[in-house]
Structure formats: C-alpha cells, structure tokens
Amino acid sequence: MRIPYPWLKDYVDITLSPEDLAEKLTLAGLEVERVEYPWPGIVTAEIIWLQRIKGSDHLSATRVSTGTQEFSVVCGASNIKLHDKVPLATIGAKVGEITIAEKKAMGVLSQGMLCSPRELGISDDHEGIYILPPDTPLGVPLGKLLGDAVIDLDIKAHRGDLFCVTGIAREVSAITRQPLRLPAITSGKGKLPESGEGVERLMKLEVRDPDLCPRYSARIIRGVKIGPSPEWMAKRLLAAGMRPINNIVDVTNYVMLELGQPLHAFDYAKVKDHTIIVRRAKHGEKLTTLDGVERSLTSEMLLITDPAGPNVIAGIFGGERVEVSAETTDLILEAAHFKPGNIRRTSAAIGLRTESSGRFEKNPDIELTVKAIDRAAELILQLAGGTLAPGRIDAYPKPEKPRAITFALAQVEWLIGVAVTTGEAIEALTALGFGVREMSSSQSQVVLDIKVPSWRGDVEEGADLVEEIARIAGFDRIPSTIPTGPLPAAYRNEWWERENLLRDIMVGAGLTEIMSYTLTSRQVMAKLLVAAREPGAEALLGAPAPIPLLESPTRKNAKAPAKREQRALQAIADDLPAIRIKNPMSAEAESLRLTLMAGMLTAVRENSKHERAGIWLFEIGRRYLPTAELARGEGLSNERRTLALALSGPPVTSWAAEDHDADFYDMKGAIETMLRALQVRAWRMTPVKHPTFHPGRCAMLEVAALPEAGAPGGVALGETAEWIGVGILGEVHPEVADQFDLSRRTYLAELDLERLFAGVPAYGIHHAILRYPAAVRDLAFIVDASVPAAEVEAAIRGASGALLRDLALFDVYTGEGIGAGKRSLAYTLTFQASDRTLTDAEVDAAIQAVVAAVKRTHGAQLRG
User: Fold this and answer.
1) Mean per-residue pLDDT for 92-104?
2) d(CA 593, CA 601)
3) HEC sequence for 541-593
4) Labelling 237: which of 216, 482, 582, 683 has CA 20 to 30 A away?
C-alpha cells in the first residue's frame, strides 16, 4: 500500500525523514518495502563544458558532472550556459514514455538527457532546460531534492484499519508521541450544510440479506457539476497508485484511501424508482461491469440492485447502467459494510480483485460507513457543488456492541520478559485509540479495564494487548535470552525420518529437490494422457500405484493426433477423477493433483530455459485421490505419499568427461541406488504399457514384501514371495513431451512410498566382512530376446541357494553367432560362506542347479 508522505503529514506532525520513519514503522510491525521518490534515475549535475555542434543550428555538445562521474550529453535547448546546475536523466531512466539510452547525434555521443520542466511534469514549459539553483548539491536524486516521498508498505496483518492513510497516521502518532489530527467531519466536530427535501422521501432502501450486509448507509447530493479534480487531489491519487477520473469518482477513491472505507456513487436519475435493493444474485444472472465484461453470477454472490436489475457486485465492482457520467447532476452516495468471507469468495470466483474488495476482505471498521459518507459529501460539495439532502439512510439492524478486556499488566513481563510501567502501558494503548481505565492497583498487580476500539477487530485477549504495548514501547527492548524450563518429550515421526533419508539418497545420486504446488488444473494433468488410445486411461492417474495399460481397441471418439487438440484435451480433463476446489484462486489451481508427474515435467520445461546442463530433479509430496466417502460428502481424500523423479539431458557439463543425455538406465540406476540404500531385499522391473510413457521404454517397479512387519532385510526369497507394485518409470511419450514443450528426451518415475516401505525393513542388517575366500563364476545364457533379464536373474537366485552372495549382469549381446530373435545374457555369480572355504564340488553343484533352472524356466542354452 502506497502512502504519500505529505498526505500523512496532514494528520500528524512528522519531523523524521521518510527513511527514518520507514525504519520506525518496520520496527513497529508495519513492514515498509521501499521509500520511493519521483523521477528515478534523474540526478543533479553541472555543465562543465559547452560547445555548439558544427553543422547544426540548435544542438550543443555538453560535458556534465555529477560530482563523481562525467557524461557527454547532446542538448537542443538554448537557455543553458556553462556551470548551470541541471537535471540529468541517466541511461536507463524513464522520461515520459522514453527510456534513456546511449546514442549518437550529429556524430557526437550522448549518454543521457537534460530535462525540461514539462518533461519532469513540473509545468507545461518546454522551451528550455529546468535550471536548478546555483547552490544545488551535485549527484543528488532529483526526487529527493524536489519531489515528495511515497512510503510503500507491505501490510501482512489482518487489520482493515491499516489500509488507509489515517490508519497509518494513527500508528505514526503512537510511535512518535505526536497528536493525531483527523478531518473535522469524521471526528464529529464538523457539520455539513443540508437543505431541501429529506433523504427518506427521495429514495428507498431494502436490505434483503443483512447477514452479508450488516450495515448500509446512503446520502443524496443534488445539482453537482461533473468535471476534473483539482491538481492536489489528482497528484495524491496518482502517488497512491490510482488514476484520476472525475471529481465524483475521485472523491470516493480519495476517501477510501484516506479512511479505509470503500464508497460508490450512483447516478440518481438512472436508479429505477430511486430504490436500492441489496440481495443475493440469482443463479445465472449476469452483470456487465465498468470494464465492459459480462460476468455470470451465482446465488452465493451479493448484489446492489434496483427494480430494473443488478447495478454493482457488492464490495467489488460497479456496473455500467447506473454509473456516473458527464451528464450526471444528482447522486446517491453509498457506504456499506459487507461480510469479508463472502467478498473474498466472490472475488476469487469471478477472477476480479479490486482496491475495494481488498479492503473489505480485511474487515474494515463497521462504524466507518457514516463517517466516510459524510466526509465524501463534504468533499463533493467543495469540488462539485450541489446541495446535500437532509439526513441519511442508515440500515444497521444489529449494532456492534463495544468490547472490553480486563487486562493484568503483569502479562507483559510474563509474555515478553520486559517490565513496563503502568504509565507506559496506558500511554501506548491510549495513543492507539484504546480506552483505558485503571480498575485496581496494588504492589503486586495492576489491572486495567480496556475498551477496544471498533476498528481493532483483531484484538481479542490480553496477549493481543501485550503485543500492542511491545510494538509501541519498542521490540528492541526485549532481551535476547536462552529458553529455560524442561525440554518437551521427544516425538518420533517415522515418515519424517523416511522422507529425510530419501532426500539424502536422491541428492547423493545427483538429483536436485523441487517443490511444486499441490493445486493444479485438470488440463495440465490431462496432457499426460494425450497419447492414450484405450478407454478408461484417466483412471491411471488416480491409482495408488500405476497400473499397466493393456492393449485394446481405439479410444472412443479419439481423433487423429494432428486434429485432437484442445477439445480432445478438454474431454480428457473432464473425465479425470480429480478433487475440485469450490472457490479456486485461479483456473490454474482448480484441482488437487492426482500425480506429481505433471509438475515434474513443468519444472523440467521451465528450468531447461535457463540451464545448459541436464535437469535431474526429484520431489517428495502427496497425491490426492478421491474416495467413495468423499463423493458422499463424508471423510477425506486418500493422500498418497509419493516420490517422483525426472531426468533430462546430461547430469553434468564438464571438459573432463564425455557428455551423455540421460537414458532409461540412468533412471533405473537412480532407483536401484535408492532400493539398495533402503535394504529392500528384492525387486524387479517388468515391461508395461502406460499412455504417459514411450511404448517399449516403460517398466513397473515391484518390491518383495517382507514376510512380516518389521522383519529385517537379507531374507532369502521363496517361490511364493508376494510382489507389491510400487510405481512406474520410463521415457516420456513423444506426444506428451510435445504437450509440455520438452526439447530433449525426458525420463520420469513415480513411486508410491507407502507401498515401497512395505518392502523396507524396520531396521538395517549389517554383516561382518567374511574371512573366507569367494568363488566367482561367469555364466552366459542364450534366451529369447523377449525374455526380461530380471526373470532370468530371479531364476538364478531361486536356484543358487544361500551361498550366492552377489549376482551382476555384465554383458548383453545380440548378433552373429547367437541367432535371430535371441540374445546372450552374461552374469557374474559370487559364492561365499561365512564359516568355511567352499569346495569346488559345492560351487559346481550350485552352478549345475542354476543352469538347469534357467533352462527349465526359460528354455535357455548355455553359451560356450
């Protein structure tokens, strides 16, 4: 929020510089982002050399100095002379619509621009350069010398009273101990001139939904003259970030910025039957707002209407039909209080957030409506003339009751560790507008009766008052101390430990962690399924673990890849079983994600724009799957803990190593590294089909379940081992890659962690280094090319017995001497016993059992 410094000084005497005041506000809990001045990039300079350019009748070459630097500048003005002090727009500064750049004029280099009064917005004079006084210091930003500062605050507190100039002035008054001066009419000390027919006879008001509009105030002003606002008001609005329009609209904006209460002006003649009706919208009702957009409304939204139809989306934006125009002479001026939650939901639903809605969301003071409408009427009478109808409409059926808190002063020291005197506490609270009365006082305890002002809805208990006292007394008074008292009992979070372990493993494997949003759009997730040819593929994104897609007839209504663009993508999106948000913040965040894969591919695309090396990423997060209970309006979604990986491009770019783009085996290796680190006793990867992945380059990961919960690793697999599907990995399908604008082959994996850890032992097993030598044998089997190496490996492990310590595939060969449709798989088998040296007979018996098992299960031949 932008607060012009001179405007602030209207309400409180400030002797501090804008920068010093910004620091004090920040230390009091009101964070100042920056202090801005006009004319950024324009500094004071002195002309130290001047000469007419040959061949030109008006251009001069100058050399100007800022005290620390010198610049060559070409100037066409005739009023400059040697040693004049002038405003210099340096390279990169913006003057009007022009951005200053280095260039040549008549062959002379120009490194800036000397500015005229009109170019600076000081006056309409454009005949010559603006000459500064001779004693002007050099190198000073012109804005600091001649302009007014704007303090830009980032208010994070849920306090409606801080979103206005007088609210900040109240804080400044309390901090600097200077009195606060509010406009007379708002403080009840002023009186407005009224004449003519009373407002009750000129208009009617019906508030049909007081739960959403607990207060509505209105006044009528007749005989106004629409025109431009005076320069002082226009300048303040511009400095605060608002565009001047006309004197009526500008007054409503000015009062909103001054007091924090949004207002709206209607053309009295255009309001049918001069009747204002506050009601909910009818479902499907439409309103064309002032920006020319026709907006569809729902029954949850509040409208300001008349018998002819809707005029304003309450608290957010006005409509065209009753807007103030150049022909307007009579006004209905409104100031209302709306339920913050309803304004927030409506604003999000229609995708429109305004200065007005932002303030209503923060719950402004309900008592402001009458004060603000009177202040606006005062300014309109001054700037637009007219007469004010006697009285006002004020529908306020349930007035807010004053709140009081009994406050023991000892809470201050107990909560912040600093003792304050009774006088300090009373002074701080009184300066902030609280009513304070001392109820009882003894040597041990002081009790105060605190009356909470209507604009401080955030203050509910004594701890809130302690914070207010601490802010004004100074947070710097709170000492730095070491916490005392007993430590809380240790709490072990098993999943936190598991996820931290996975992070260490993935980082060690060369991947970088990312965090993506859990809210996404169904259209983005639908891009993962654009290559689907089978019906029902949408269900894959909602499965606890990826399910292989079987071959089946072409998907219903599928179009040729070249034609099924947006409509086909939308059809897929509509079928996704994603959990939708009722009031999404945007169309890009309307559903909970069914998968992490869409976020991973988006991250790969965005990072590849900035990185020459490869993008190797992982994310640990949750997927949100629908449940039958949730469909009935009961229970919650099924939240699945998930690990996702994405590899694209080379892992590093180095002169010392040959670059290679990531491939399937890099992904497989990263996952196997994780499985070994977790001491998963066995796993296998089997080919499957899935629409997100390239046909023939996709596999499902399965792990062997432990025989019982918490069993250690290293248990030998039996023939009846239970295999658990954990996830899927492979190369992204080319059509999916096109949807995400991926320029390189990309590999994805998504693993369900709850299924994965069903195969992870509760504690690790560590073995002593064996004393006895190992026996190593190499075997090469010729099998059908369609037989997965994992199945051959499983047969070897099953037949070799407990003596097999290690098994590694070291060669895959196809070609001459093998035969068509065949391939050779060569393995190294390591046998070792913990209590003896193995004999040749024991090893040969194990080898014969392995050869027989592989031949029996896969028809393999032993390669010589």
Assistant:
1) 90
2) 14
3) HHCCCCCCCCCCCCCCCCCCCCCCCHHHHHHHHHHCCCCECCCCCCHHHCEEC
4) 216
Residue type, 773: P
Q: What is the per-residue burial (b if ≥16 Cβ within 10 Å, else e) of 132-146?
A: beeebebebbbbbbb
In this structure, how many other beta carbons lie within 10 angstroms of the beta carbon of residue 87?
Answer: 26
Q: Using CB atoms within 10 A of its CB, is residue 202 exposed (0-12), middle (13-18) or buried (19+)?
A: buried
In the DSSP assignment, the letter for residue 539 is G
> Is 70 exceeded by the pLDDT of residue 553?
no
The two tokens of residue 717 are 């697999």
Rounded to an integer, what is the distance from CA 761 to the centroid of its chain? 39
Quick one: tokens of 434? 């609280």
For 86-151, give the DSSP string. Answer: EEEE-TT-EETTEEP--EEETTEEE-SEE--HHHHTS-S--SS--PBPTTPPTT-BHHHHHS--EE
Query: What pLDDT does residue 563 have?
Result: 44
pTM equals 0.66
Helix (H) or strand (E) holding 199: helix 199-202
What whole-number distance in Å separates Cα of residue 134 and Cα of residue 84? 7
Q: If you search the block for the tokens 């694209």, which residue do you land on?
A: 648
Helices then strands, each counted (H, E), the chain? 24, 40
Residues linked to residue 624 through DSSP beta bridges, in sequence order: 639
Helix (H, G, I), strand (E, B) or coil at 167: helix
- Our CA dihedral for 527, 528, 534, 535, rounded to 10 degrees, sits at -70
What distance in Å separates the CA atoms of residue 522 and residue 452, rounded to the nearest whole number? 47
User: How is residue 725 written in tokens?
Assistant: 């599907």
Note the pLDDT tens digit of each residue in 444-470: 689 999 999 999 999 999 999 999 999
Q: Encoding tokens for residue 147?
A: 């302009």
Helix (H, G, I), strand (E, B) or coil at 420: coil
Convert the pLDDT of each residue in 242-297 to its tens digit: 999 999 999 999 999 999 999 999 999 999 999 999 999 998 899 988 888 888 89
Answer for the pair 822, 784: CB distance below 8 angstroms, yes or no: yes
Joined tokens for residue 742: 């991926």
Do residues 614 and 661 touch, judged by C-beta distance below 8 A?
yes
Rg of the chain, C-alpha, whole Å: 38
Spatial separation of the C-alpha atoms in residues 159 and 178, rounded to whole Å: 22
